[in-house]
Amino acid sequence: AAITGKEERESEEPLVSVEIIHGDSLIEVPNLRDTTYDVAFLDPPYGVDVEQTHRSSSAWEEMFMDDKDSAHITTRLVLERLYPKMKENSMIFVFAAHQFSTLIQSMMESVGFDVDDVPLIWYRTGPQGPTMQVRKWFSRAHETIVYGHKGLKPILHQGNNVIPCDVVTPGKKVHPTEKPIGLYLELLRRVALPGQWLVDPFGGAGTAGRAALRAGLNATIIEIEAKYVGAARYLIHGEQPVQEDANAVPEPGREDEAS
């Protein structure tokens, strides 16, 4: 069964440390302590062509119509700089559009990670829109998650590689590529223990940090966009975002709060 908003809710663990860093991950990752992190989540900006694969979205276009080569160079450099920050036995999960999954696997292997040739599949359940070219292409209902190890971090709870989980509906999204917290919680349930450390260099609105709190993990979240840093601080620490301009993120309504 798919993980729904209600099913993903868990009793809150005692508060642990979640650090939210406003900055460029290319600059901030080298400043992190070496051999610190047990789990890494990355959801990099890939420069996806929104006109071909997604509904028109000014927010999406603003962030992701970047040059693909530049986006991939950034991802490669962040992976390279992140590797020494991971513990000797740790795991990494990288969200990747299907067309880029092989490239991401190659990048991860080139910096030292041992990567499974078969990725995880997030089967996106719940309401979701069609592609822009509805007369030509079928709707996309999955996303790949390329994963691997530095050393060997044993799997705690085995499961298959297809994970059904409801999407975050457009009206609930704070960040254009926001993933459901239930997906992060399921991955953490499989591989992480309370008290361990998580890092997310492309933190968005802080979903990985929220999941870390629920699972009893410490976390470091890095995000370059001020408006999403504000949203993450509000959602994780209860700080009200400062809305100084029209691009500021409004106080978000959360799917799990409405459940």
TrEMBL record:
<feature type="domain" description="DNA methylase N-4/N-6">
    <location>
        <begin position="38"/>
        <end position="231"/>
    </location>
</feature>
<dbReference type="GO" id="GO:0008170">
    <property type="term" value="F:N-methyltransferase activity"/>
</dbReference>
<dbReference type="InterPro" id="IPR002295">
    <property type="entry name" value="N4/N6-MTase_EcoPI_Mod-like"/>
</dbReference>
<dbReference type="InterPro" id="IPR002941">
    <property type="entry name" value="DNA_methylase_N4/N6"/>
</dbReference>
<dbReference type="InterPro" id="IPR029063">
    <property type="entry name" value="SAM-dependent_MTases_sf"/>
</dbReference>
<comment type="similarity">
    <text>Belongs to the N(4)/N(6)-methyltransferase family.</text>
</comment>
<keyword id="KW-0808">Transferase</keyword>
<keyword id="KW-0949">S-adenosyl-L-methionine</keyword>
<dbReference type="GO" id="GO:0032259">
    <property type="term" value="P:methylation"/>
</dbReference>
<dbReference type="InterPro" id="IPR002052">
    <property type="entry name" value="DNA_methylase_N6_adenine_CS"/>
</dbReference>
<dbReference type="Pfam" id="PF01555">
    <property type="entry name" value="N6_N4_Mtase"/>
</dbReference>
<keyword id="KW-0489">Methyltransferase</keyword>
<protein>
    <recommendedName>
        <fullName>DNA methylase N-4/N-6 domain-containing protein</fullName>
    </recommendedName>
</protein>
<dbReference type="GO" id="GO:0003677">
    <property type="term" value="F:DNA binding"/>
</dbReference>
